[in-house]
User: Fold Peptidoglycan-binding domain 1 protein from Ancylobacter novellus.
Amino acid sequence: MSILKKGLAGAPVKILQEKLGVPADGRFGPKTEEALKAYQKQHGLSADGIAGPDTFAALGLYELILLKVGTSGETVKKLQSALGIGADGKFGPGTAKAVKEYQAANGLEADGYAGPATLAKLALFKEITPEVVSKSQIAPGSAPVEASVAGSPAAEAAEAPPKSIWATIKGFFS
Assistant:
């Protein structure tokens, strides 16, 4: 999963909440959604209350950018341009293949995910520093979420790279 929306919980949600200035309990509820929509509207983004790569970039939360198959937007288009492939803004199998090839050729884990380490190597954003890459990883002692039902937030989180902060995402119901 590389987006945050109402009903999700985990470390990436807490980081988003801290940036938005709402209580940072790590649970994406109505107040987080309201604050996110206001930010998106104010900054010319699609005010849908869903935080994805373009919103993370606008917020300066580069540690939360994780591009993978199914991701779309301007950030994906930048990635595709940097890889020298057709830049349609949709991360599909061709983009995943190009990412894996780039990673393999540049000493990165060839997993097909374009997270901060890959984006830093590509110099896609000058803001992605070694510190940002470090922040994108699970803190020592944090266990990744176990996968449950396919298609659930936990199952999607389990599809994140093994040490990615995204592996902490889970769903909640209130």
